[in-house]
Each structure stands twice: as C-alpha cells, then as structure tokens.
Amino acid sequence: MANLNKTGVVFDIQSFSTHDGPGIRTIVFLKGCQLRCHWCANPEGQNVFPEVFYHAMNCVGCFECIQKCPLDAITRAEDEQKNKGFIRIDRSKCRHCPQLDCVQACFNDALKITGKIMRVDEVMKPVMRDKPYFRDNGGITLSGGDPFFQHDFAMEILKACKENYIHTAIETEAFAAYEKIEATFPYVDLYLCDLKIMDPAKHQQFTGVSNKRILENIKKMAAAVPSKVLIRVPVIPGCTDDVENIRAIAAFTRENNLTRIHLLPYHKLGQPKFEQLGREYPMPDVQPPDKGQMEALKQVVEEEGVVCVVG
User: Fold this and answer.
1) Which domains does the chain possess?
2) Which of 7, 265, 290, 255 lies closest to 121 in space, CA to CA?
C-alpha cells in the first residue's frame, strides 16, 4: 500500500491538460532535476528547495520584504538596476531561509513562493477530484523537474494512483540510477523520455551533463518495457534541430525497437521564469522553429521507419 504521509516538494498541479500523455490528465510537477538545459521551460523545477519568484512588474517599492528578511538577502536595487525592479535578491542566502516571511509581507504579489512541501494524500486530493474526467485513457502525469529526483515520493504517488485504477505517466530525462527507474515499472503505464542530443560533447554543453547514462537507461527500458516508452525530442534551433541529430535519434529509437517519436517545437515560456528567479536566460535571441522546419524534421524521422508526431 502507498504511504500517504510521505512528503515531497511540488511546485504546481495542473488539471485538464491534454498534453503530456493520452486523454485528459492531471500534471503534478515535482521539484528537482540534475540537468540544466539552456531552454528549460520550468527552471523553477531545477532546484528541489522552495524558491521565491520576483514579479518586478507588481513591485511598488514599499521595501516591506527587506524588513522581514532575516538573512539580509533582499536589498534595494542600485539606480542602474531599477529597470529590473526595486529590489535585488541574493539567491545564495535566500535558499537557506526556512520561513520566506518576505512573501507574506508583500501585499502586491510581487514575491511568490514556488515549491511547497506536500504529503501524498494532499497530492491525491485534486487527482481524485479530476478522476471522473479521465475516462478510459486519461490519468496523472508526474513531471518536473524530473520525478526521479524525488524517487521515493514519486513512488508513493504512483502506488496511490494504481490503488485507485488511475493511468500513470512520467516525464523524465532518464538521468537516474536505473534501479530507481526499474522499481517504477509495475506502477507506470507510460514513460515520456526526453532525448535531446546524441553527440556527447554537445549534450554536455547544452544540458550540463553527459548523455551516456540517459542512452544506457533508455536502452534498458526499451528492452524491458518497450510498449511503455515514448521518445520525445525538444526541437531547439541551434541546439537540437540539425538533421544529423534528429536522424541519429530516430536511428537509435528504431535500433532499440521503439516505434514512436514526438517532436516538440521550442517555445519561450521559460524566459520570464528565469528572470523571476534572478537568472539570465541563456538563449534570449532564439526563436521557435516554423511549421516548414518541423515538417522537414518529421520526414527525417519517418525516413528511419519511426512513427513521428509534431507537437
């Protein structure tokens, strides 16, 4: 039985999603990821601890947050910095704060917490509320971050879902100890595996980690539960979108007896989140690929004998 009192850090729960798995789904976003992809759409999911978003547009410069910060992590912005808001946050100090009283002091929602410690039973409440809408093929998708970063917490959520006959999916980079992935096999119906770049040096450059473990894990997953594995490729101009890379991923997919690839066009939704976390967005000038490029890359995948879906 699932341990409903197990706790973890969740940064969002979204209902009625029609992406990230079949049917209507509830997406549970867990914090923590070992990759640092330049194009990350959810940078608030990278660190496992709760963090503060600073929405500079809402800030009126009352400086109440400065008075409430026990670690002196918040200071007034210098004149040349005020185009990015009235305050500056020292994130190295902020990460050690157990209270985040600054958020409570902000009356205009300029400061918000991303990341909340939750029990499994608390996560399951919205999931069970949404269950009637899942019908035959909907369910829950654990996303992030990467759910395997909080493996024990994710396992208990998955067990609770299976006890309630709910379809389960995991969005993952597959950058984890294989034993952790293997342990979820009885409780997961679909693995949405992101495979970004086949060239090891380029993968290291744009994600911060080697792709060796990722490729090894996907090979093992393909051998053990091939019907549950779906390869997804984020198409990032200048990073992952060259024909050689897409063809290599398609060949890898075919060679491991996997039959499907989803190509996901880049979007810029992560850029404001980087800024709200006080971080520079690594690729501000990159624009989403056009429809013609996506169709051309789809054809490359299909030439390798792999079914391809765009989006």
Assistant:
1) 7-47+120-310 (3.20.20.70), 51-114 (3.30.70.20)
2) 7
Q: Estimate to the nearest angstrom the gap between the alpha carbon of 227 and the chain centroid.
A: 23
Q: How far is the C-alpha of 42 from the C-alpha of 189, rounded, in Å? A: 24
pLDDT tens string 193-232 = 999 999 999 999 999 999 999 999 999 999 999 999 999 9
- The pTM of this model reads 0.94
Residue 113 exposed, middle or buried by CB count within 10 Å (0-12, 13-18, 19+): middle
What is d(CA 63, CA 226) in angstroms, rounded to the nearest whole number?
55
Residue 82, pLDDT above cutoff 80: no
Closest listed residue to residue 15, CA positions, set 4, 30, 26? 26
What DSSP string runs through 201-222? HHHHHHHSS-SHHHHHHHHHHH
Instruction: Report the C-alpha gap between 180 and 157 in whole angstroms.
Output: 15
Considering just the CA atoms, what is the radius of gyration of the chain in Å? 21
DSSP 103: H
* Residue 80 pLDDT > 80: no
Question: What number of residues does the chain have?
Answer: 311
| Burial group, residue 285, by CB count within 10 angstroms (0-12, 13-18, 19+) | exposed
Q: Give me the helix-helix angle, 291-303 and 243-255, nearest 10°.
A: 40
